[in-house]
Write a structure and sequence with these properties.
Order of helices and strands: EEEHEEHEHHHEHEHEEHHEE
Helix content: 25-40%
Distance between the termini: 37 Å
Number of helices: 9
Structural class: alpha/beta
Largest sheet: 8 strands, mixed
Strand content: 15-25%
Length: 332
């Protein structure tokens, strides 16, 4: 695959979930968890996907890995359409795209040693390997994430949260994937440990030339690792931009509100906190037009008319807001 070709391209992705009928012959409602999301990733790029709980970002990550089926749209990996491939056809592709889970304890089998947990992908995808070669690769994977080979005989409960997440990363990387989906990998960790795990992923990205879809709700974490940031709200992308541009000059009011919540370490630089009023609308019956308009302080009657497209407002900076006249507050 050429370096200029995206390793991952998502076009108009839709993920809808049908709810059980409330009455035997009543209508069946649908949750529009993801409703028309498009983005692409270059080889070796880290794309941060951010949004509040319920925005659909985890659903996008799982759909990209084909862990849940797409209702519509297209998912292309290394130039090939994988949207509707069968389980048999996906099997040779799976080693090239792996997942790091949010919970570093629930994602590890407590009855298995760390060595067996990390070796599991090899047993599934490379059963021809001998025991000595598997042991060598497990040792190399543990060393890669900063764990000693002697830890392979220990169990998950003997590790701290940060160490358990390192085990999860080692398991994901032992097959040397090209795409890593990290689903809020640091949200369950202490702040100091979060920095260690983020730095580890940054080093592994450079060493292995990984492409990482980094999902989080914390823009401060996203800003430390991502090349670009995609902001989701209620199933749609509202902004997509290089990290520096998004932090300096946000172009969507929802991004401005998220940035205002990022802690400011300098007490001499107070930042105006923007508090969104009301609850997020239902994904079953989203608002007409701009989905953020019901909580947006800049909303106008025209915002109800039609869904604003994600359009390029400056070089590489895309926004789904009609108000080009707004001067929004950044984080730097």
């Amino acid at each position: 695959m050429a370096d200029t070709e995206p390793i991952l391209a998502v076009e108009e992705l839709r993920i809808h979930f049908a709810l059980p009928r409330r009455l035997p012959l009543g209508p069946r409602e649908t949750v529009k968890a993801v409703d028309g999301v498009s983005f692409s990733m270059r080889p070796g790029e880290v794309l941060g996907l951010v949004g509040e709980s319920g925005s659909g970002k985890t659903t996008v990550g799982r759909a990209v890995l084909r862990l849940i089926p797409a209702t519509g749209g297209t998912i292309r990996f290394r130039g090939g359409d994988i949207t509707h491939l069968s389980r048999r056809a996906l099997r040779p592709i799976r080693p090239h795209m792996q997942l790091v889970f949010q919970d570093p304890f629930a994602s590890l089998n407590p009855r298995m040693t760390i060595g067996r947990i990390v070796a599991a992908p090899l047993l599934i995808h490379r059963p021809q390997l001998g025991r000595n070669e598997r042991r060598r690769q497990v040792t190399a994977a543990l060393d890669m994430v900063g764990l000693s080979p002697g830890m392979a005989n220990r169990y998950p409960h003997e590790f701290s949260g940060g160490q358990r997440q390192r085990v999860g990363i080692a398991r994901a990387l032992i097959l040397r994937p090209e795409l890593l989906v990290a689903d809020e990998p640091v949200s369950a960790l202490d702040v100091s440990i979060q920095a260690q795990v983020v730095n580890l992923l940054r080093e592994l990205r450079a060493e292995l030339r990984l492409s990482i879809l980094f999902i989080a709700h914390d823009l401060a974490v996203i800003g430390n690792i991502s090349d670009r940031v995609a902001v989701m709200y209620l199933g749609r992308l509202v902004e997509l931009a290089p990290t520096d541009a998004l932090f300096r000059t946000p172009r969507h009011p929802y991004t401005e509100a998220l940035l205002s919540a990022v802690p400011e370490p300098d007490p001499d630089r107070p930042r105006r906190r923007i508090v969104l009023t009301g609850d997020p609308p239902s994904a079953i019956h989203p608002p007409s037009g701009c989905r953020f308009r019901t909580r947006c302080r800049y909303a106008q009657p025209a915002c109800e008319a039609a869904v604003p497209p994600l359009r390029e407002v400056s070089a590489g900076h895309f926004s789904a807001c009609r108000r080009d006249d707004l001067l929004l507050q950044g984080a730097v």
